[in-house]
Write a structure and sequence with these properties.
By secondary structure, the protein is an alpha/beta fold. It has helices spanning 13-24, 36-43, 58-63, 79-92, 108-113, 122-142, 212-220; strands at residues 5-9, 28-33, 49-52, 71-74, 97-102, 118-121, 151-156, 177-184, 187-189, 202-207. It has seven helices and ten strands.
Length: 226
Amino acid sequence: MVKDRIIIVGGRSKARTLAISLLAQGHSVTVVNSVAEDCRMLAAVDGLNVIHGDGTKPYILDEAGAGSADIIIAMSPRDEDNLIACQLGKKLYGIGRTVAMVGSPDKVDIFRRLGVDHPICAVRAVAKLIEQQAFLEEMKGMVSFEDGRVNIVEVEMDEGCPAVRKKLRDIVLPDGVIIGALLRGSITIIPRGETRLLPGDRLIILSAGGREIEAVRILRGVRADE
């Protein structure tokens, strides 16, 4: 069963990577690209629909099935093209969710005011990652490792981990162990019982008395030192 019908405008290799991920999740994906060579590369992806044309033109979006699409993601190198594609998707076709890549952080709020649901800036995303790392380093500076009171461990989840796709309330961790934060891409999540772990999530675990070894075994199925 198809989850969402998604159109990706532009993006080249990034569009290919994103499309492969979305197809694997069960979505229907169509990529619109104005470069013939890029279209040939994209057409090699099994199950991917490829339209050669300008994604800022309504007749091309018609061909891509915009009238029945759930999401449009604009990833071209030109911010103005991404804005136009999203505005057309929203106003002309009634697409419920619009996503646009923007080149600078100061355009994020402008795009949002102009109707783009999710403007994304790579520069801002990188800055957030740096802020997260600085936060973790600050945490490490606030606790004592020498006397064994508190340890902080980062655990990355992958598809093979026994805890993946489970809700935290269904995972029994040792006493003295808490999951302080969950890093999902560029987003920091304060986890709750209903939070479901996904492949690629990075968990920041705080533990006392060396119990992080058992926690890692429960989450990943291996010992922390393996």
